[in-house]
Design goal:
single chain; 356 residues; alpha+beta; Fructose-1,6-Bisphosphatase, Chain A, domain 1; D-Maltodextrin-Binding Protein, domain 2; 2 domains; seven-stranded mixed beta sheet; 7 helices; binds manganese (II) ion
Length: 356
């Protein structure tokens, strides 16, 4: 161990000592994921020089246009993780069906789920993106996993985390004992523990939501946001800031670093979609990180981690961050009186109309 610096490997070794019967498989798996993230970080750093920016002619399982780097990052995740012998299968936001472990490799005891490049539509404008991952136990260790094996609630996660590719590359991890952030030392190529035991303050002074969807929101969300916007003179009695990066990893990271609340609620814009974000690749891992940091994660009606997934690419409404704010937003969703709330921001009784 470097005198006063703990690497990701040091951290994992120390944690493993708590479990004398552990085989080391799990640590090797996390380190394989970290290597995938380091490789992706290097690819991204070359940006336009490498001619991998921009869109492909393909769409992913959700019908979204794939960026060239979505495909590159997915391949990196597969090749860094499929041969380690730790996994019984891999599922990705970018693949219709889970990838099998190639015949030549042994099957292991875990399942890896990932969003290889979250926020990839931000690449062309050089805004932070990330990779998100979640680890579950294989239902039949040593055998190839079936697609349904991945449909486990978030409470079953063994570990979860993300890498954020920003001004620095960071790796944020929970193995169920707090949420910890490691910064990539670009000279050593090692993740160094820089933010142990992150805590999200219970109250928030910042909210993040795509306000252009205001007219599609449910009354509970309109009420919550309207009250934040009303500031000091409104029912909340204090002023709020608003942020919107449109990159889930960047939003989650900001909230872990300095607090706040994020909402991508259910809306009526596209009634075929219950929400925008994916339960298995995005919401569950971020929810695990938030809860381990003292925050909360909810659909507005129920805890994210309790949801039993019905399909691999399931989308859900996603609200997370400061516990008191998530509590309040849930109360508004569950309170029948709030369904009467109808004060459109720009409408007759809205905030921006002078009192008469
Ligand atoms: Mn994503
Ligand atoms: Mn993605």
């Amino acid at each position: 161990m470097l005198a006063d610096r703990k690497t990701l490997t040091d951290y994992l070794i120390e944690e493993r000592r708590r479990y004398p019967q552990a085989t080391g498989d799990f640590n090797a798996l996390v380190l394989d994921v970290a290597i995938a993230c380091k490789i992706i970080a290097r690819r991204l750093a070359h940006g336009a020089l490498q001619q991998v920016l921009g869109a492909t002619s393909m769409q992913n399982a959700q019908g979204e246009t794939q960026q060239k780097l979505d495909v590159v990052a997915n391949d990196i995740f597969l090749s860094a993780n499929e041969g380690g012998g730790h996994l019984a299968g891999l599922a990705s936001e970018e693949m219709d069906a889970p990838a099998a472990i190639p015949e030549r490799y042994p099957k292991g005891r875990y399942l890896l789920l990932f969003d290889p490049l979250d926020g990839s539509s931000n690449l062309d404008v050089n805004v932070s993106v990330g990779s998100i991952f979640s680890v579950l136990r294989a239902l039949r260790p040593g055998e190839a996993a079936a697609p349904d094996d991945f449909l486990q609630p978030g409470t079953q996660q063994v570990c979860a985390g993300y890498a954020i590719y920003g001004p620095s590359t960071m790796f944020v991890l929970t193995i169920g004992r707090g949420t910890h952030a490691f910064t990539l030392d670009p000279d050593l190529g090692e993740f160094i523990l820089t933010h142990p035991d992150i805590k999200v303050p219970a109250a928030a002074g910042e909210f993040a939501i795509n306000v252009s969807n205001h007219r599609f929101w449910e009354p509970a969300v309109r009420r919550y946001v309207d009250e934040c916007l009303a500031g000091k003179s409104g029912p909340r009695g204090r002023d709020f800031n608003m942020r919107w990066i449109a990159s889930l990893v960047a939003e989650a990271h900001r909230i872990l670093m300095r607090g706040g609340v994020f909402l991508y609620p259910r809306d009526s814009k596209d009634p075929t979609k219950a929400g925008r974000l994916r339960l298995l690749y995005e919401a569950n891992p971020v929810a695990f990180l938030m809860e381990q940091a003292g925050g909360r994660a909810s659909t507005g009606r129920e805890r994210i981690s309790d949801i039993v997934p019905s399909e691999l690419h399931q989308r859900i409404p996603f609200i997370f961050g400061a516990s008191e704010e998530v509590d309040l937003i849930e109360r508004y969703h569950l309170d029948p009186a709030v369904s009467e709330y109808d004060a459109p921001l720009f409408g007759a009784r809205g905030l921006f109309r002078a009192a008469t």
